Amino acid sequence: MSGLRADIEFRRPDFTLRAEFEVAPGEVLAVLGPNGAGKSTLLSVLAGQLVPHRGRVELDGASWLDTDRGINVPTHRRGVGLLAQNALLFPNLTALENVAFGPRAAGVRKAEAREIAVHWLSEVDVSGLAARKPGRLSGGQAQRVALARALAANPQLLLLDEPLAALDVDAAPAMRGLLHQVLRRQEKPTVLVTHDVLDAVVLADQLLVLLDGCVVEQGPTREVLARPKEAFTARVAGLNLVPGVAAADGISFGDGAISGRLVEALEQGESAAAVFAPSAVAVHRERPNGSPRNAIPVRLAALEPRGDVVRVRGVARNCSLAADVTPAAVADLRLTPDDEVWFVVKAAEVAIHPTSGGSSGA
Q: Which tens digits make up the pLDDT trace of 244-259?
């Protein structure tokens, strides 16, 4: 197939990474895992910064790496664009000059490189900052310029290394929304390393979970998070993520609806997800009336003690959901598996996100 194909085995004395995967053109693969799982090592191999003990990396049928055949294309010839946690802009150059650097390094004439830079600064909505140097940019502004710089070089493969990790709580949602808009227009494959399940839900078509250097889960984002096989995946999938399509003030979900706060503008009918924490959910035997709350009919699947609370897991229209309630509430409601109950959550506690590849429940 065209796109990215990789089969890698990288060894250190105390660690071995083994991973095999494909990323189709225009597709985003999220790599999720705890610290030390091998996520950054994987990106470094793809970028050509590390050579594995054994492996193959191909893009659109061209070999970048083949240890059996002695092929190892250097980093500067791979056509890789990288957006890391920190913007890493050249401090002595303006935003415009930073973005124009990639095209200029590739031999593009100065005037044309400037036009390319102007275009991408506009695409990431920072045209007004073109003359500023990095020292006069906020963290979110600098990361937007860094994204423009990565895209201006017309990369054959885009690598995103925890691009939202260094941003504050106000800048991260805006940057996530921008990435969603940009990535869904890309025709090249993208690999996103993240520790945040929300990044995977909003941005990624496919999900690969790494633990101790091994791929433990892999597949469409929605499917992996809806039916996690590993405790780590279940833990990071702790948010309730309800798939649907954008409606007037939330999403349509089967024959029902969930209302909430729009994180970014959505067109009706666009793929979207309602996201809310298990702690925001109340459990009722009967549907409550007379209150502007979301009420979702659920069949209980399991009750899991978690310290001071009990995580009540259920299924609604093939979507897994969770609620954290007190042991007293479980006793008062006499909850047992297979009971039919209502999960109730206030609209103010629900965030409505666009989705790229899909979403799931907790």
A: 898 888 899 878 889 9
